[in-house]
Amino acid sequence: MRIIPKKSVRILDPETLRRRGLRLTGPRRLILELVRGTDLHPTAEWVYRRVRRRLSRVSLGTVYRNLRLLVDEGIVKELPGTVGRHAGKARFDGNTSVHHHFTCSNCGGIHDLAEPVDPSLDRRMAARTGFSISHHRIEFYGRCLVCQARQGPRRRARKRR
Ligand code: ZN
Ligand code: MN
User: Fold this and answer.
1) How many whole angstroms separate alpha carbon 63 and alpha carbon 51?
2) How far is the CA of 85 from the centre of ligand 1 (A)?
3) Helix (H, G, I), strand (E, B) or coil at 110
């Protein structure tokens, strides 16, 4: 479920891309479409599997290289290190607006949160530290609804002790 409306995702017009000398063709365009078209915050491997369905000759290396390039250009966001099953694996977000995330410590699922970003926190931190702060992002961790249901109440109660 994508809580943040799709229209808040900044769409780069062809002119901006041309100015940056970035061509969006073939695998690169498909990779961008795939990352923007899902709210799963996928790994490179996930993107690779989907790309292969349409362009069977594309290598994992090509997918990595293009994801890196899209991240460097600010067109796709890379999320900080996650926990659980996907620990250590980079995750990609086609929604480049500043928003918070919930990560399930059990299944590694990452969800967008509708919690508004509070710009006064940036100002407070800047005043306190002297740092120039561009933005902040809050990461929440815990168990998603699916994992809570799978675990059942008995095991959950035992684990809390
Ligand atoms: Zn989960
Ligand atoms: Mn996100």
Assistant:
1) 8
2) 10
3) strand
Task: State the ligand closest to the CA atom of 76.
Answer: 2
Cα(106) to centroid of ligand 1, in Å?
Answer: 5
Ligand nearest the Cα of residue 151 is: 1
Kindly list the distances between the CA atom of residue 106 and the CA atoms of 15, 80, 132, 144, 145, in Å, as whole numbers in the listed order: 43, 17, 35, 8, 11
pLDDT tens, N- to C-terminus, the chain (161 residues): 445 544 444 556 666 676 677 777 789 999 999 999 999 999 999 999 999 999 999 999 999 999 999 999 889 999 976 666 667 889 999 999 999 999 998 899 999 999 999 999 999 999 999 999 999 999 999 999 999 999 876 555 555 54
**Closest residue by Cα to residue 12 from 70, 63, 84:** 70
- Whole-angstrom Cα distance, residue 16 to residue 134? 22
